[in-house]
Amino acid sequence: MKDDAMFAVLKTGGKQYRVQPGDVLRVEKLAAEAGDRVRFTEILMMGTTIGAPLVSDAGVVAEVIDTIKADKVITFHKRRRKHSSKRTRGHRQQLTLLRVTDLLESGAGSSDVKLAVGARSERRSRVAGDERYAMNKTDQAEMSRRVAEGEAGEKSAEKSNTTMASDVTTESKEA
To answer: pTM of the predicted model, to two decimals?
Structure first.
């Protein structure tokens, strides 16, 4: 281990890594392609500066080498005695291979390098941002059919909820 070089402790994918420029890491899959440069901003320690809990405006820049899969993990379940049932399943975790290029003690927020985001969290935010459909699946299918046929224009879920609430209040006033 090199003690004389600058190092940082970063957090990604629920794990912490001690990194120096030139290190190669295997981290949980990120939403980035090979050759992309990504920036980590959850820095717990930078050299002698210890964060409380994070070091402000610090960052680590890394280059994505490849997306790989880890070794297969086998899970085997067996019910003993009368049941005589067995189940074997395998799983290969998807990982991103990174090479650390820079440690930024300050100015990481103003850097033009893409922020490192997990692949699953990016997919979740994209689905959550689509407000074109209603909340339940029956209304979603009906609304998408009506939009495709041109019977209805696209509108957000908030507008449709407030319209329904105003309809209910007008009906109660009439009664």
So the answer is: 0.62
